[in-house]
Amino acid sequence: MKEFFKKLRIAAYVTALLTIALGVVLVAWPMEVTGLICRVLGALLVVMGAVYIFGYFVEGRGILAITGGLLFLLLGVWIFITPGSVVTLVPIVIGVVLLVHSLRDFQMASEAKQNGSDRWIILFLLALLNCVFGVVCICDSFGIVSVAVRILGIALIYDGISNMIIVYHTVQAVRYAAQKIAPIDVDAREIDE
Predict the structure, then answer these.
(1) Radius of gyration, alpha carbons of the chain
(2) Which helix (H) or strand (E) holds 62?
(3) Using CA atoms, how far apart are residues 25 and 2, in angstroms rounded to an integer?
(4) pLDDT for 68-88, tens place per residue?
């Protein structure tokens, strides 16, 4: 049992250290990591496209196989060559969605005011904040991605440190409990009646 807990503790510490290391990498180099992930995704798409095209020529698959293969291949090459463009698209799309929602929110705040609501100004300010978030996402998409990746890195560092603390205290508690129930070694002797 003691050996089992020792292996479990070592595995938990190694996992925690790797998690902390990954978190530090994400905090220190957020855009490089996202670029690497995009390049891996691009390479996978290139391989998928090649498989589809290979299937078309070797197995005689339909026109969809070669069309899909070419699309995957071209998309994969584009992502692999320009990973930053893919990374920045996500915040821009989110920013557009936020702007559209804020326009609807402005309209609803106006309707609330027209219908005599006392809280229309709060609704207007909430819509304005939503609009500001949308503009920030569109104008500073690299910054948004960088911040998001750094937050993920901080979360991983916290996870690793908290896991190490939890494992340490759990092992200490198990040791203490085992010591309390340890058998007492005594010499046996017969009692004469």
Answers:
(1) 30
(2) none
(3) 35
(4) 889 989 999 998 898 877 887
CA torsion angle 180 186 190 192 (round to 10)? -80
Taking only the tens place, the pLDDT of each residue in 106-142 is 888 888 888 888 888 999 999 999 899 889 888 888 7
**Residue in the block written with tokens 């609330």:** 112
CA-closest candidate to residue 51, choices 40, 41, 38, 61: 61
Which residue type is seen at 37? Answer: I
pLDDT in tens, 153-169: 898 898 889 888 888 88
What lies within 8 Å, CB to CB, of 24 at 6+ separation is 153, 157
Distance CA 165, CA 193 (A): 57
Query: pTM for the full model?
Result: 0.65
Quote the CA–CA distance of 113 and 109 in Å, as a whole number.
Answer: 6
Distance between CA 134 and CA 128 in Å, rounded?
Answer: 10
| 62 HSE (CA, 13 A, CB side) | 1
* Helix residue spans in the chain (DSSP H): 2-28, 30-59, 63-81, 83-114, 120-139, 141-180
